[in-house]
Design brief:
With 411 residues, this protein is α+β, with helices and mostly antiparallel strands. It contains 9 helices and 13 strands. A 4-stranded mixed β-sheet has the order 11-10-9-12, with helices on one face. A 3-stranded antiparallel β-sheet has the order 5-6-7, with no helix packed on it. A two-stranded antiparallel ribbon has the order 1-4.
Length: 411
């Protein structure tokens, strides 16, 4: 039975007591992840500079800064989405915190060269910030605007929890019990293309109403006309994906878009997906959090870019679903539509919906309406409370550090 604080729909409407419990559980996971990462790095907390990751110590401090910035220091926090970013703020608990941890103004590459507080001081900062948050939360009535920033902070920390797992996979760190369970959410398809679900043409209402907590890019209820289509009942498994590799798909330019082929040549010089290789006897093996494991043909293919998903679809005579098709199929087919073990690439660009207006955290959505694709669902490393069907994730098409796979539709 799912805990209310983990239920992705209930948590968006949670009151102060449940939010306090969820915030405490989320922070416990963050600290466990940091402790495991620190131990795997030998206590040094130094990692190579990379576009896809942040220094672990910066990640930790950023959590405390974000929480304090939007709650304790935010004089308009009770106004929710109507709060002004420019409103005067109180000074941070940690001197110069804005110059260290504000992701909107601190350039990514510079985060490796900042004079960050040590781990002990950073952990104290997080504890102090959380104490103030819980004290303020205890006096909040059940009002969506007044609870908005507390819910935002909860979601933000969950996002960074998954980012921490991505860092661990990238750096081959065995983070043990800080990694969410990798067990499948439902019985997977053992091999071949999954069963397909047929849906008739329809006019559908998409977009979230203004109730409870909603991310700004989810708002804008509107109708869309969707033609009849069929869609896989579950994401494409390794059992269906490996034949594409074995047939020479990674060396067949005809399977790839021009952009995808250039990406494959640049990023995958060995002609194989990231983390994939051959073991003894030619068995397929994956690098998985510092360990080498046999590929489970029944599990969804993961750590694939949009380009790889598109190439497989071309080879198989299929296509990626739009985000509206994904949403409609999930709504209409319920448990028959299996999801939640990998993020799923879609054919839809991440774009604003009618009437879009940025929420106070303006850098969350608006800067990324640049044509990058929407991903739907959630992965094994996603906090359960984040796996809401309305959630629109977004990464660049070439990202293969994300725990992403795909499902397909008929042409």
């Amino acid at each position: 039975m799912t805990e209310p604080i983990d239920d992705p729909s209930l948590i968006r409407h949670a009151g102060a007591a449940d939010l306090a419990r969820a915030l405490t559980a989320g922070r416990a996971h963050s600290l466990r992840l940091f402790s495991s990462t620190r131990a795997e790095l030998g206590g040094r907390l130094e990692i190579p500079c990379s576009e896809a990751v942040n220094p672990p110590l910066w990640e930790l401090g950023h959590l405390g800064w974000f929480e304090e910035f939007w709650i304790a220091r935010n004089t308009e926090r009770l106004r929710g989405p109507a709060a002004r970013l420019e409103a005067p703020r109180a000074a941070p608990l940690l001197p110069k915190a804005d110059a260290l941890y504000n992701s909107s103004t601190v350039a990514h590459a510079s985060r490796w060269h900042l004079d960050l507080p040590d781990a002990a001081r950073t952990l104290t900062y997080l504890a102090q910030s959380r104490e103030r948050t819980l004290r303020l939360l205890s006096h909040i009535a059940a009002d969506d605007d007044a609870l908005y920033f507390f819910r935002l902070v909860l979601m933000h920390e969950a996002m960074h929890g998954e980012a921490g797992a991505m860092i661990a996979q990238t750096l081959a760190l065995d983070i043990g019990d800080a990694l969410p369970s990798t067990a499948p959410a439902a019985a997977p398809v053992a091999q071949g293309v999954p069963d397909t679900l047929a849906l008739p043409a329809r006019t559908a209402t998409v977009g979230s109403p203004v109730r409870g907590f909603v991310f700004d890019n989810e708002l804008g209820e509107h109708t869309v006309d969707v033609a009849a289509f069929d869609i896989d009942s579950s994401p494409v498994t390794w059992g269906a994906y490996l034949p594409f590799i074995e047939a020479g798909g990674y060396d067949d330019r005809r399977c790839w878009t021009a952009t995808g082929w250039a990406w494959r040549a640049r990023e995958l010089p060995n002609g194989l997906p990231r983390y994939l290789g051959r073991g003894d006897g030619g068995r397929w093996r994956r690098a998985c959090f510092g360990r080498s494991v046999d590929v489970d043909l029944a599990q969804p293919a993961v750590n694939l870019s949009l380009h790889e998903a598109q190439a497989w679809c071309t080879w198989a005579g299929r296509r990626l679903p739009t985000e509206h098709e994904w949403t409609i199929a999930r709504e209409d087919h319920g448990e028959a539509f299996r999801w939640g073990e990998v993020w799923e690439w879609t054919a839809s660009p991440f774009a604003p919906w009618p009437g879009f207006a940025p929420h106070p955290y303006r850098d969350y959505s608006q800067p990324w309406f640049d044509g990058r694709p929407v991903l739907k669902g959630g992965s094994f490393a996603t906090a359960p409370r984040m796996k809401h069907p309305a959630y629109r994730n977004f990464f660049g098409a070439g990202r293969n550090d994300v725990f992403a796979g795909f499902r397909s539709c008929g042409l």
